[in-house]
Amino acid sequence: MKKVILLTVCALAMACTEKKVMPTLLNPDDFKGEVDGQEVALYTLKGGDLTLQVTNYGARVASIWVPDRDGNYADVAIGRKSLEAYMNPPGERFLGACVGPVANRIKNATFTIDGETYQLPANDNEVNTLHGGFKGLDHVVWEVREVTDSSLSLTYLHADGQEGFPGNLLIAMTYTVTSDNEFRVDYEATTDKPTHVNIANHPFFNLKGEGEGTILDHEMYIKASRFIPVDPLGIPTGEIASVEGTPMDFREAHPVGQWIDEDFEQLRNVRGYDHNWCIDREGDGVELVCTVYEPESGRFLEVLTDQPGLQFYSGNFFDGTDPGKNGKPILLRGSIVLETQKWPDACNNPSFPSTLLKPGETYTQTCVYRFSTK
User: Fold this and answer.
1) CA distances in angstroms from 139 to 58, 86, 156, 233, listed in the order given
2) Given phi > 0 = left and psi -120 to 50 = alpha, else beta, which region is 179?
3) Structure confidence by residue, pLDDT tens digits, 222-261
4) Region at 211 (left for phi over 0; alpha for psi -120 to 50; beta for the rest)
5) Please, are residues 254 and 283 in contact by the beta-carbon 8 Å criterion?
6) What is the pTM of this model?
7) 10 Å Cβ neighbour count for 243?
8) Burial of 96 (0-12, 13-18, 19+ CB in 10 A)
9) pLDDT, tens only, 31-45
10) How far is CA 71 from CA 22, 102, 104, 146, 205, in A?
11) What is the pLDDT of residues 97-152, one digit of tens each?
């Protein structure tokens, strides 16, 4: 009996002294530099159990450390380990960035305002514009206005004519990490000419941790009964379709991989999920629109927004040759992107929620990524 008691005590003692996996943060020295004569740095924000690292080059979220149900941390954001790696990426360009001034794709790289047609860079398949062109908000240095332990406020003036967009667009954005384990993004923008604005945050998540396999077992819910069909180049067809009876129906949570390889035209067009869901909104404020649960770790992500759309991308073009910042390859379908925004190519689809911003108006948007376990 004494031997059994002794063994039990020893086992408990070992369990109590077992070390938890804690955050291993990126080195700020690897992000120090100048781009276009402007200073770049890395900032660390903390709140609750959440630690976030951001660089003002492209307003990129480089790491997000959150615990699992046992208190072990993992970096759930796919990113790069240095400024140089973001400036000259070996693969995916938009990791963790703020994208715009018009996120997503613009058909034929053109739109018309008040009878005047604006030609934009055709940086997507040499036909369309993607995420603001060759030098969108992801490839510029944002001015740092204020830094605290838990927030970073940035501004950027997207000049009239830059990448073909009209108007001097002044953008203010604040990243905040809260005591409730929320990563919150708030935007404001004003212009001196009519222009289109649809900014989005573009983090790539894997709730197992960066480079820890695919996201096919992540269980997802999206509060949407409709979605926007796209052509083989990812351009909206103009149709607004029901999710009923299709692999696009996430109104009840289920694994991302459950239907991703179904013989369904929309999945074939973009090699998986890369679509905008039209949120079944209850009002004009910030509300829950999506959840993602990773069963092994117990990590649970909630997405809240005041926007009418959610773009879900399932990492369809990773192929295992692009290493993340920890050196592990990012596999096909090794990440989830959840962009809160207005509907894509609204500038060419008058029936979609408008992205037009006029002088005297203020564009605003709030997006919240809330982390927990269960």
Assistant:
1) 5, 9, 12, 23
2) alpha
3) 999 999 999 999 999 999 999 999 999 999 999 999 999 9
4) left
5) no
6) 0.94
7) 18
8) buried
9) 999 999 999 999 999
10) 9, 39, 36, 31, 19
11) 999 999 999 999 999 999 999 999 999 999 999 999 999 999 999 999 999 999 99
Catalytic site residue from 131, 139, 202, 218: 202
> CA-to-CA distance for 219 and 258, rounded, in angstroms?
9
Q: Tokens 């954005």 sit at which residue?
A: 173
**52: which 2 tokens?**
């976030």
- Does the domain formed by 28-373 have CATH 3.90.180.10? no
What are the residue boundaries of the structural domains of the chain, listed by start?
28-373
Is 339 one of the catalytic residues?
yes
252 flagged as catalytic = no
Cβ pair 143, 156 in contact under 8 A: yes
Indicate the length of the chain as a whole number. Answer: 374
pLDDT band at 17 (very low <50, low <70, confident <90, very high): low
> In the structure, what pLDDT confidence band is assigned to residue 7 with cuts at 50, 70 and 90?
very low
Q: Which residue is catalytic, options 182, 210, 302, 339?
A: 339
Q: Which residues contact 365 (CB under 8 A, 6 or more apart)?
A: 185, 186, 187, 199, 305, 306, 307, 340, 341
Q: What is the pLDDT of residue 13?
A: 43
Write the CA distances from 94 to 18, 87, 186, 251, 338, integer angstroms. Answer: 38, 11, 19, 28, 13
β-pair partners for 298? none
Six-digit token string for 225: 């009964």
**Cα(374)–Cα(365) distance, integer angstroms:** 29
Give the CA-trace dihedral at 283, 284, 286, 289, to 10 degrees: 50
pLDDT computed for residue 5 by the predictor:
46
